[in-house]
Design a protein that fits this description.
Distance between the termini: 105 Å
Largest sheet: 4 strands, antiparallel
Order of helices and strands: HEEEEEEEE
CATH architecture: 3-Layer(bab) Sandwich
Number of helices: 1
Strand order of the largest sheet: 3-2-1-5
Strand content: 25-35%
Number of strands: 8
Number of domains: 1
Structural class: alpha+beta
Shape: rod-shaped
CATH superfamily: minor pseudopilin epsh domain
CATH class: Alpha Beta
Helix content: 25-40%
Amino acid sequence: MVAPALTARVYDLTSVDRIDRHGFTLLEVLFVITVSVIMMAAVINSFSRYTRERSAQQAAYLLSRDLRLARATAIGSRQPVSLVVTPDTRSYVIRDTRGTVVARRTFAAGSDLMIESLSLGLPGDSVTFSAHGVATLTGVTGGVAEAVIGSPTREYVVRFNATGSSRIEER
């Protein structure tokens, strides 16, 4: 009897039947998650910067409107009305001579509009409209006073005259 010849089998590894894959490898999933996290961080950073700048701009418009409110209240009640700024708390209050609060605004942490700074360029950080609706702007040149509202990246200046007319500029 003749012994069978030993022959080596050669396998073509490029044509080996592969098991059908469903899904992704761990490496692919980790790559997608990493890219997603980086993109979300960039978007969140841009969005938070935008909202801080937008808050300062909205606070400037609100202050401009409240200057007109203080004047209108002074004329309507026929008594002086003051808008008093408190820079430390980034807030202001509008009140008449009896102490009645017409409006109170706060722009610090926990409020709808957060700003970095608030100042009124007048002595005592206040402006008072007389019963005739005219403000005394002592210490200002050209009859125009200004309030500055700051965000981390820019400032908004509310320039106003003795009748409460105002203009907002970005610095």
